[in-house]
Amino acid sequence: MAELVDDKVLLQDKNLIAPCGMNCSLCIAYQFKILDINKQGFHRRYCPGCIPRGENCKHMADACEKLCKGSVRFCIECEDYPCKRLKDLDKRYRTKYHMSMIENLDFIKNNGMDRFLNKEAEKWACPKCGGRICCHNGLCLSCDLDKLLVNRKYRWEEESEENNG
Ligand SMILES: [Zn+2]
């Protein structure tokens, strides 16, 4: 498997795993940036990913001194792991976005980053184009952007009303 991915891509993918266990490559703000989707009439914030942006962790840093200072790379290195804030975040993402930060971090801890990245690549691959599904809406933004154009709050096949993150 390893020879499928060159080192530069691997490094880039590693940098897209945020300290909280979020895979930034699945995030709507990252995918919008990569695909420059605001060209299609949207006005969303673009984000290159928590680590590339240099803010360590969007979800947690404002409430965590260690993340704020960058003194841990991942929350699993912390003696308080998993803290209440991470558990709350994890619950929100499990409920709404079909993923779990804590599951991700535990997998990285037990199996290593390379295996995690392989697993993620399989789990989130678009069956049509091989691109990445976005965890915030369950869509491949290359293949299924029409659904988002019709309903900008589209989320995981739900008839959505108030989806405020
Ligand atoms: Zn696709």
Task: Give the arrangement of secondary structure elements.
Blueprint (H helix, E strand, L loop, with lengths): L6 H9 L12 H8 L14 H4 L11 H5 L14 H14 L3 H11 L1 H11 L21 H6 L15
Helix pairs in contact: 6-7
The structure holds zinc ion.
3D structure, described in words:
With 165 residues, the chain is an all-alpha fold. The protein has one domain (2-150). The chain has 8 helices and no strands. It has helices at residues 7-15, 28-35, 50-53, 65-69, 84-97, 101-111, 113-123, 145-150. Helix 6 packs across helix 7 (113-123). The relative contact order is 0.14. Bound molecules: zinc ion. Residues 126, 128-129, 131, 140, 142-143 line the site of zinc ion (ZN). Zinc ion (ZN) is lined by residues 126, 128-129, 131, 140, 142-143.
